[in-house]
Amino acid sequence: MHHRQTYTVEVAGLTRHFPLFEVAPGVRIAIFNMLGDTIVVKAAAASLAERLKETPADVLVTAEAKSIPLIYEMSALMGLPYIVLRKSYKTYMGDALSAETVSITTGVPQTLYLDEKDHRLIMGKSVILIDDVVSTGSTLEGMQQVMTKAGAQVSRVAAVFTEGDGDWSHVVALGNLPVFVDGDCA
Questions:
Q1: What is the three-state SS of the chain?
Q2: Ranges of each domain in the chain
Q3: What tens-digit pLDDT sequence spans the chain (186 residues)?
Q4: What is the pTM for the complete model shown?
Q5: Could you tell me the fold of the domain covering 33-175?
């Protein structure tokens, strides 16, 4: 089995070692995948819910897939319904709204779809956008476009981590992950 370098981080009081993956020549990022890590999901959700408790909102919104357990737990803690924007269209989604974005993870355009039934839930409502990691902001941009089309107002943006040295001052986050370029050591 290949020994992969890791980057150690503290998230919501817990220590985790994130594997480093090359996403472009000479550029590596620490991959945060909370799927299957119930303890991190619950701790991060509690911490974000606490930071967002004064934010006026009717609905929480995320894009599939890795932040689904996070938004589910935040929904339960905050007493707010949640919506998951899908990355593929299914016929039962009816007259879905969509927006296209380019994912840093895959490098290809991806479309986010809002189910017809969820459109009714957020029209004219105030929403908080939730993501696991905000790296380029492209997924957020896609989520924002869908919210605008749906007639919803984004009151806050929250993520477990921001990534890189962009201006993420508008994002409520628990930490920032560095981007490692060539000579950097983790």
A1: CCCCCEEEEEECCEEEEEEEEEEECCEEEECCCCCCCHHHHHHHHHHHHHHCCCCCCCEEEEECCCCHHHHHHHHHHHCCCEEEEECCCCHHHCCCEEEEEECCCCCCEEEEEECHHHHHHHCCCEEEEEEEEECCCHHHHHHHHHHHHHCCEEEEEEEEEEECCCCCCCEEEEEEECEEECCCCC
A2: 33-175
A3: 678 999 999 999 999 999 999 988 999 999 999 999 999 999 999 999 999 999 999 999 999 999 999 999 999 999 999 999 999 999 999 999 999 987 666 677 889 999 999 999 999 999 999 999 998 888 999 999 999 999 999 999 999 999 999 899 999 999 999 999 986 554
A4: 0.92
A5: Rossmann fold (3.40.50)
Give the neighbor-by-neighbor strand order of the sheet with 59-63: 82-85, 59-63, 126-134, 153-163, 171-177
Query: What are the tokens at 49?
Result: 């819910």
Token pair 């924002």: residue: 144
**Cβ contact 129:152 at 8 Å:** no
Taking the C-alpha atoms of residue 104 and residue 139, their distance in angstroms, rounded to an integer, is 9
